[in-house]
Design goal:
Chains A, B: Keywords: DNA-binding, Transcription, Transcription regulation. The structure is a homodimer. By secondary structure, chain A is mostly helical. Chain A is built from 6 helices and 2 strands.
């Protein structure tokens, strides 16, 4: 593994970092699509934090924003395939983190 | 996946975060043990940054510091098994990051 590969890993880490990034990825992965239901599923997040997070994710090709042509107010969000491909890493982080808690609490 | 699991994932992310954490994990994983050779393998790191990083990693049970009883100055470092168990996640981050670069550069 060389310097270039370390940068790749740090890129991926960056995409997953941030207080709300993984909770939003999880909510969308679990099939929540509407703004209000996503917000309600994430304890502590405010509407403005969620809207900023979704904007950043859209810019970074992690989320698709879909407007209903007949009902412009009716907006839905969906993870891009590209972002879904992160999900196995999120699961491996969860598993490692669970073990981590056991190690540091013994 | 619930809130508790998100915290596990964020714990794991935290362990991997920081400019020098993955480069140091990689150097030790690749078998480098002595302070000078670790520092020389990581472009841009200074001795004081490395020593701070190794101290934090030792405190967090990620690194073992081994002194030679006959030669106290002769210190070696080694990843703990616990930290080695992170290595597959680092590799999956590298792979995803490599693809990520292709996506954002097309």
């Amino acid at each position: 593994m060389d310097e270039k590969e370390i940068r790749y890993a740090q890129d991926a880490l960056y995409v997953l970092s941030g207080k709300w990034r993984m909770p939003v990825i999880l909510a969308l992965h679990n099939g929540l699509r509407r703004y209000r239901e996503i917000a309600q599923s994430i304890p502590g997040i405010t509407f403005s934090m969620l809207s900023k997070e979704l904007q950043i994710m859209e810019l970074n090709n992690l989320v698709l924003r879909m407007e209903d042509p007949d009902f412009p107010k009716h907006v839905e969000y969906k993870l891009t395939e590209y972002c879904e491909s992160l999900y196995p890493i999120v699961e491996s982080l969860v598993n490692w983190g669970r073990e981590h808690r056991k190690v540091i609490s013994t």
